[in-house]
Write a structure and sequence with these properties.
Helix content is about 45%, strand content about 15%. The strands form four sheets. It has a four-stranded antiparallel β-sheet. Strands 9-11-10 form a three-stranded mixed β-sheet. A two-stranded antiparallel sheet has the order 1-8. It is built from twelve helices and eleven strands. By secondary structure, the chain is of the alpha+beta class. The chain binds zinc ion. Zinc ion binds next to α7 and α9.
Length: about 300
């Protein structure tokens, strides 16, 4: 879990893993994203900026990330984002952000302040370049990557993470987009709020009774909504039933299922039914959103 989570969720903890020595030394070290981090960031960005119409509260999304709230270096830029288009690159050092001197400031707060206003960002870099660009709107969520050997992912209401193992398990961007979209869907659908209100038990007791049923319902909704978010962002939803088959074969959820997650066969069937539903809606021009999703 992240210890410090800003509005747009910079990789505070991951940065700690990348820069192990003291603050003075860390500024001299090169920085590099974790394996898969760029792909996940790009997919997260595309899914959100293509699904702004479904957001309860649209927000300007940063198209670049810093590694630490006090680090003036650019950690990564989103491949198709306005920052990259304006010329911003990993390793660039920020000296001014919208007329504020960056050194010694909380960089995350400066970026948040720029985005809260209008999405217009003006950056001055240590090499003298001045860049100006306007960010796009998304839902203000952030899905990232964390080191991990198990095939896991989670969402906490605003943000979420996939393990590096899960990123590696996917065989194309469509499968990876589905996992990111599934976690985003939990946030779009405010599942954490719903489960908290229902006092759902997490952990061992969640395997039984009411809690298991409620968690399973949120999982099914996230599976459905994830496919809609994918489809609206132009990903290939027909790749997902075979993803579930591979995932089930690897994780053995049919044998070990604890009742909180649907079984593999049910997930495949739900994916196929949802794909058919999406295709029908595309044909008729109906709103491309799950039937249970509220009108915005
Ligand atoms: Zn889920």
């Amino acid at each position: 879990m992240f210890n410090v989570m800003h509005k747009y969720g910079f990789f505070v903890v991951l940065a700690c893993l990348l820069v192990s020595s003291g603050r003075g030394a860390e500024r001299q070290l090169p920085i590099a994203p974790l394996a898969g981090q760029q792909r996940v960031a790009d997919i997260d960005y595309r899914l959100q900026t293509q699904n702004t119409a479904l957001c309860a509260e649209p927000a300007f999304m940063p198209s670049f990330q810093i590694a630490d709230e006090r680090d003036t270096r650019v950690f990564l830029t989103l491949t198709d984002g306005p920052a990259a288009a304006a010329g911003l690159r990993t390793g660039d050092v920020l000296t001014r952000i919208n007329d504020h001197v960056a050194a010694g400031q909380n960089i995350s707060d400066l970026i948040d302040a720029a985005l809260d206003k209008s999405g217009d960002v003006a950056l001055t870099l240590a090499d003298g370049r001045a860049l100006h660009f306007t960010e796009r709107q998304g839902c203000g969520f952030h899905i990232g990557v964390e080191p991990g050997q198990s095939l896991n992912s989670y969402a906490d209401g605003e943000n979420g993470n996939l393990t590096t193992a899960l990123v590696k398990f996917t065989i194309n961007d469509d499968e990876l987009a589905f996992i990111v979209a599934h976690e985003l869907a939990h946030n779009y659908l405010r599942h954490k709020e719903r489960l908290d209100k229902s006092h759902v038990t997490h952990g061992l007791l969640a395997m039984f009774g009411k809690s298991a049923g409620l968690i399973k319902q949120t999982e099914e909704e996230a599976d459905v909504m994830g496919l809609y978010l994918m489809a609206r962002a132009g990903y290939d939803i027909t790749k997902i039933p075979s993803f579930w088959a591979r995932f089930g074969a690897r994780t053995g959820t049919d044998i070990l299922s604890d009742g909180t997650h649907p079984r593999t066969k049910a997930r495949i069937a739900l994916a196929e039914a949802t794909i058919a539903e999406i295709n029908t809606k595309r044909g008729t021009g109906a709103r491309l959103a799950p039937n249970f999703y509220p009108q915005r």
